[in-house]
Each structure stands twice: as C-alpha cells, then as structure tokens.
Write a structure and sequence with these properties.
By secondary structure, the chain is an alpha/beta fold. The chain has 2 domains: about 110 residues, Arc Repressor Mutant, subunit A (Orthogonal Bundle), CATH 1.10.10; about 300 residues, tm_1862 like domain (pyruvate-formate lyase- activating enzyme, Alpha-Beta Horseshoe), CATH 3.80.30.20. Helices cover about 35% and strands about 20% of the residues. The chain contains 15 helices and 19 strands. The protein has a 9-stranded mixed β-sheet with strand order 9-10-8-7-6-5-4-1-13, with helices on both faces. Strands 14-15-16 form a 3-stranded antiparallel β-sheet, covered by helices on one side. Helix 8 links the parallel strand 7 and strand 8. Helix 3 packs parallel to helix 4. The protein is globular. The chain binds S-adenosylmethionine (SAM) and iron/sulfur cluster.
C-alpha cells in the first residue's frame, strides 16, 4: 500500500455500522406492537404485485464447538435433545404468523437458514423443518433457497434432503485455511473437508456455492492470506464473502481468548484485504458491493450490472423480496417500513411462543426521514451511487450531507455533482464512512460507548 493510502486508512478507520439496516439496530426506538407488526407485514404482502414472494429467515443457534472470533448469536452444545423442540417452536412461530395474517399459506421468494449452524440438524430434523416451512407455502419460480453450513459437520444425507426440498444455494463457513490461524481461533478445518462439501453440493445440483472468509483474524499475514486464496481459487466457489473481522469483545467475551496483539489492525488489516482482492480478481472474480466477490456467471454479478442488487440482513442478494419474516431466536424481520427482532435468549423465545405470542423483543417503525435515508444508504451499498432532488427521495437532513462528504471528496474517494453522490473505486473501501454521512440518527446522537466495529 502507498503512503497516501495508509494515511487515508488511518484517517477514516473509526467505529461504524455495517448498514445491514437503517436505522441501525442500536437506534431502534419505536417497537411496533404485535398488531402493528402484523399490519405492516400484511401491507408489504399486499404491495408485492410482482408476486416475488416473501422471505423467510430461520435462525438455528446451535454449534458443536466455539470458534473464538464468532460474532453470531449461537449456543455451543453437545445436547442434541434441544433440537427437535426448537424446530417445533420455530414451526409454531410460523403458524402464529399465518394465523394472525389470516393466510393458510404464504407465497415464498426466498428462504435462508442461518446460524449458528443449520447443519447441526440431523437429516430427519432438517426434513421436519423444511416440510413444515414449505408445506403451507407456494414457492415463486425463481426462488432462492439457501443455507449456511459448517463443512466440518455437513453430510451428504443432509444435502440430499435440502436438494429434495429445492434448496439451490449453499454457503460454506471457511474463514481461513492456515493451520496456525485455525488453531488460535479453535476451528480446525482441512481443505479436503471443504472440497468434499463443495463437490457434493455441485454434484447434487446446488446452483451456487459461496465461501465465507474473514480477514483480520489473529496471526493472519500476507503469506497466510496468499495460501488461503490459493486454496480458494483451486476450489473455485461461485461467490465469496470476504468479511472484515468484527472485533467486539464487549459483546462477545470469547473474542478475548486470543491476545489483541495478535490481531492485524488498521493498514495491516486492510493490506490483507487488498492482497485477497487482487488474488481473486486475477482468478476472474469481480467485486460486488462491499466485501463480496462473484464469478461473472453468478446471479450476484448479473444483478449488480443490471442495477438490481439488493442488501438485507443476510447480506447482498440478487432478488428483492419483501416482507422478511425472521423465525427463531434473535431473528430479524423487515416489513420495509418497520423492523422487529425476536428474543435473543433461547428460553425466553421458547416461553413466549408457548404462550402463543409473537416473540418480538424490540423493533422500529420507520418515519419519513428514516425511509428516505434508508433508500440512499441502500443505493450506496449496492450501486455506490445515489441522488435526490427537491421532489424525489428528499428529506431536509440531506441538505447537510454534501458538506459532511467534502473531506472524502477532497481525498478523491467520491464525486459530488449537485445532489448526486458517486463513490469511485478508491472509495469502495470507505463505503461505511460514506453511509455514516447519511446516518441522521448516528450524527444526532453519537454513542456514549463503542457500539460498532472499526470501519476498516
Ligand atoms: C453462522 S456463520 C456460518 C455457518 C457456520 N456456523 C460456520 O461457521 O461454518 C456466519 C458467518 O459469519 C462470519 N463471522 C462470524 N463471526 C464474525 C466476526 N466476528 N467478524 C466477521 N465475520 C464473522 C463468518 O464468516 C461465518 O461464516
Ligand atoms: S463461526 Fe459458525 S460454527 Fe463457529 S461458533 Fe460461529 S456460528 Fe458456530
């Protein structure tokens, strides 16, 4: 990296949100009642005149062992007895939604099983879950049915069940192939294990295979990232999410199990990304949005070129589906003009469902300003560009945005043409910082303690 780019990194490396939603979760302050939430969902279903269908996100919190970097809502257990009651509770929650909405079946455009580890479920438990989700549903022709798997705990039998139910996308948690890094984060996983799950998925007809990788893990170096990328290129997934390690030990104390001195930070961390990106681009991958890569044949690139890329709580997606119903502990739902998050504690989640309640723990009803700013942040995250005028996509807060972007403009990271903001390639690394200039809630009330990971 040049001296100039190191200076930019030092200047803009501040705590900031990842903008999977706007307003960001810490700023939610108007939780909808159950009736209001159902009303918003119903409106969103009614507004789906293209019949794209709704999205379901199902959270499976269980994991077999702890990866010490993990920032997800998960529960390490060896007690398999927890699983079936949990699956039944999730299906009961789904039933509560259908009952409240007065619809015996939903029209589905997207399902994503996330975690935790969805492949903690045995084949017969997956069968129960998927039959329960898809039985009372019609599925849109182009639907995306996807899940996250841990290659260490994924079997052919599980993949067969998933394919039988129409699952067509799979995402493997890979993170890093270097044995020293794997050892310090307590996640030993060989290239052979990853190859086996990748090959089996392709053989069974999964349309797209994604790898999750992380840069900024303890002990990672330019050499270790080179070796990891060599292995990735050999296995040739269709998509890659190359996430910045989010170090949030005040939320996830297990991240204190390695010493912070082992963490690459600031310019050293960014150099890992730059190296990884160069390696992936040389192998034919294209960068999409922030931290994502895909082969030119993948839907993500096709959608990005057509200006149809979307971003939701699960990351980038080629399809726009709404509403999103979040089922399971800690899951988030999105009706477009309102968000909710379920109880994060497993017992409280299960108890509320047992009482016949939707387990909403908190949420937010977007006001007019939230809605306009959400649109601009989404445009930036997906197209690196946004615009407004006095009659379109306007709210008075926007008047102050160009002044707030001036320094980024002077540093050559974006172009401002009246009320059109365009982030250039050099600015892609600072997309979170650009979005922060549109984040009225963050600007009006800076957090008293650190809430977010560093932007770089
Ligand atoms: C639920 S996990 C994926 C499935 C499965 N549990 C596994 O790990 O193989 C979701 C992804 O979040 C990412 N992740 C977890 N903790 C993170 C952190 N602290 N910073 C950045 N990414 C993280 C990892 O890349 C991980 O693959
Ligand atoms: S990274 Fe995946 S397998 Fe590891 S603890 Fe987190 S959710 Fe579980």
């Amino acid at each position: 990296m040049t001296n100039a780019s190191v200076d930019l990194l030092r200047k803009y490396n501040v705590p900031g949100p990842r903008y999977t939603s706007y307003p960001t979760v810490p700023y939610w302050d108007t939780t909808p009642t159950e009736a209001q939430w159902i009303d918003r969902i119903d409106n969103a279903i009614g507004a789906d005149t293209a019949h794209s269908g709704a999205s379901l996100y199902v959270h499976i919190p269980f994991c077999r062992s702890l990866c010490t970097y993990c920032g997800c809502n998960m529960r390490v257990t060896r007690n398999h007895g927890l699983v079936l009651p949990y699956v039944e509770t999730v299906l009961r929650e789904y039933g509560l939604y259908r009952e409240r909405l007065g619809r015996s079946a939903l029209h589905i455009g997207e399902i994503h099983l996330g975690g935790g580890t969805p492949t903690f479920l045995r084949p017969e438990e997956l069968e129960t879950l998927l039959a329960g989700l898809l039985g009372p549903a019609t599925v849109a022709p182009q639907a995306s049915l996807s899940l996250e798997v841990d290659p260490r705990t994924t079997t052919r039998e599980q993949l067969v069940v998933l394919r039988r139910h129409g699952f067509n996308r799979i995402s493997l948690g890979v993170q890093d192939f270097d044995p020293r890094v794997q050892d310090i984060v307590n996640r030993i996983q060989t290239e052979a294990q990853v190859r086996e799950v990748t090959d089996t998925s392709r053989e069974l007809g999964f349309q797209s295979v994604n790898f999750d990788l992380i840069y900024g893990l303890p002990l990672q170096t330019l050499e270790s990232i080179t070796a990891t990328m060599d292995a990735v290129v050999r296995l040739k997934p269709d998509r890659i999410a190359f996430y910045a390690y989010a170090h949030v030990p005040w939320i996830k104390p297990s991240q204190r199990r390695f010493t912070e001195a082992d963490l690459p930070e600031g310019d050293a961390k960014r150099a890992l990304y730059e190296l990884g990106r160069a390696r992936l681009e040389a192998a034919g991958y294209l960068e999409v949005g922030m931290d994502h890569f895909a082969l030119p044949s993948d839907d993500l690139v096709i959608a990005s070129r057509a200006g149809r890329l979307h971003r939701n709580f699960m990351g980038y997606t080629p399809a726009f589906t709404r509403p999103l119903l979040g089922l399971g502990v800690s899951s988030i739902g999105d009706a477009g003009d309102a968000f909710v998050q379920n109880e994060k504690n497993l017992q409280q989640y299960e108890e509320r469902i047992a009482r016949g309640e939707l387990p909403i723990q908190r949420g937010h009803r977007l006001d007019e300003e939230d809605r306009v700013l959400r649109g601009h942040i989404l445009n930036l995250m997906t197209r690196l560009e946004t615009r407004w005028d006095a009659t379109h996509d306007y709210t008075p807060f926007l008047d102050s945005v160009p002044a707030r972007l001036e320094e980024l403009r002077r540093d050559g990271l974006l172009v401002i043409d009246g009320t059109n903001v365009r982030v250039n390639e050099a600015g892609r690394a600072y997309l979170r910082n650009v979005c922060m200039a549109f984040d009225a809630r963050l600007i009006r009330k800076a957090p008293a303690t650190q809430l977010f990971s560093q932007t770089v």
